[in-house]
Structures are given as structure tokens and as C-alpha cells.
Amino acid sequence: MIKVGVIGATGYTGLELIRLLVHHPQVNLCFATSKSRAGERLPAVFPSAPDVPLIDPAEAPLKDTQAVFLCLPHAESAQVAVQALDAGVRVVDLSADFRLRDAKTYQKWYGVEHPAPELLQEAVYGLTEAVRADLPAARLVANPGCYPTSVLLALKPLLDENAIHSTVIVDSKSGVSGAGRKPKQTTHFVEVDGNLSPYNVGRAHRHLPEMEQAVAWWTDDAPALIFSPHLVPAPRGLLSTIYVHLDSSWDEKKVRQLYDRIYGNEAFIHVLSQGEAATYAHVNHTNRCAIGLTMTEGVLILTSAIDNLIKGASGQAVQNMNAMFGIDETAGLPG
Description:
The protein is an alpha/beta fold. The chain has helices at residues 12-22, 76-86, 103-110, 128-131, 146-160, 189-192, 207-218, 252-263, 310-324, and strands spanning 2-7, 27-33, 67-70, 90-93, 124-125, 140-142, 168-174, 197-198, 225-231, 238-245, 269-271, 289-296, 299-306.
């Protein structure tokens, strides 16, 4: 059994993570922490949650575990990661702290100096299907953001082929849980219900440099990205519609053959049939990513759907842990 802990258990990703871990056939959940609710049990926060006690983070028995999951705000997460690594514990970080390789870029987008810049080059960017060969040796895994997960999984086969030579337009729509559990005026029920809101459009969303970084890793001539995220009146789910101009050598048959070759044996990536577009219903409450492919007048329209809390966060974190410890990636995961 793999002994694990969760630090920061009372957010939406922490809850989903604990739900997955308590039913994982090869995991022993040793502890879960909460600064604000220490001494209580998780059902006091979420009535339907597993009956797990919550302890103060300062009391977390790191040395009794083999891995910890960090579900903490940026900057705070990096400090705890250092403590865990010093204790010989492997880390899967669900915050943004280790996603960007450059400390100056991190400071620009997150407004604080990085607490542990010496670890940025070591961290493995945990888009599991792209980096699984690096995970068994990893001490520190940076779990990708939800928007980047949907976008990068959809684009990677084309990027690997250097097939994109013009600007890529990404239109993404996320359920409200993607904004986190902390109350904000823009996420109140009255503001969200019956509404559809673009936000942080242009070059304003913190997930944009994360996507641009990965795109530059995977292709010789990185295309520009235009990214427009939206908030939809749904609790969960994330759908990205991506517009890519391809040259005349590409038709839908060739594109589909590429995606079937790359993703045909992936447990959690499902390339949909011709004429079918991805929706929340394909993926919610699972660790799946559904990808639809449509060609029209030289433009490939990709639809890529995930559950933002599972494949976009906690499920991918468990998938990464599975790969780190050499067990079946599907263990403990729905989908």
C-alpha cells in the first residue's frame, strides 16, 4: 500500500482527491489537513464526504508517508513542498507553484517572488499522457491547470507533427467550481445562474503562460495562442473549442488517423466518432478527456472536454501518483 497524505483537504479539489484516495485499492490515506477546520471531520465541511479526521498542517506526520498531495494556494504550496521533500516524501502539487519553469514569469503572473526557485527545473509538468516516462523517477510533480489540460491534450498530436503554423484560437468554458471555494461576487448563485461570462480575456489569465510554455516544448515554431475563458452556470465541467488552420496536406481523415495513432490505446483519452463533438456529458465525474475533430474549409475545430475537478485536478493527480509508483494508471479512477 502507498501511504499518502492530503494537505489542504477542505477545498473542492481536496474533497475530490480524498473521495478518490479512500477508494483506491493500493492507497492508505494517512492524514488530511485543514488550517481552518482542524479537529473536525470532513463531513462537517461537506456532508457527503468520507469520514476523515482533519488535523492541523503543523501536525502532519510527513515522515510516515511516501507521498503527499498539496491542495494549497500558490506560494504557500511551494513552502510545504520544500518541507515534504526534505523529509524524503514525494510531492504532487495541485497549485500553480511548480508549473512554470521560469521564476520571473511566475512572479509576473502570480505577483509574488517564487519561494523555491531552485526546484522549478526539477519539477515534472504532470500532463500524464505526455510525460509518463519521467514520472517513476520524479520527486516533485506539478499538476497542470484545468484549462491547460483540456487544451494541451487536444493540441499535442498536431504540435508533435509541427503541423500548426498560424495563430490558435481557444474558447473555453468552465463550471463554477473552477473558481475555487472561496466566495467571490462573480461566483455567487445570483450572478452566475442564467448567465454566461467571459473573464480574463486577452493576455490576462494565469493559465496562458502555462499553455505557451508547453506549446514551445513540443514544436519547433510555436504558434501564438488567443485564449478566451468563460464561466458557465454549471457546478463542474470544462469544454475547450479550439480553432486551428492547417495546410492543404491535412484533411479530416489524416487528422483522425494521427489522433487514433497517438491516443488509441490511452485509457482516459477518447477520440470521438466523426460528426461528434465533446460535451460535459462525455466526461463529468470521470477522469476522461473527450476530443472531437471537425474539419471545415482548412480549419480544424477541436472540442476537448474534461471534468475540471477530476481530469483537470484531483484525478490527474492520482493518475500521476499511480505512474510515479509504477502501478496501473487507472487504479482508483473513474472513467
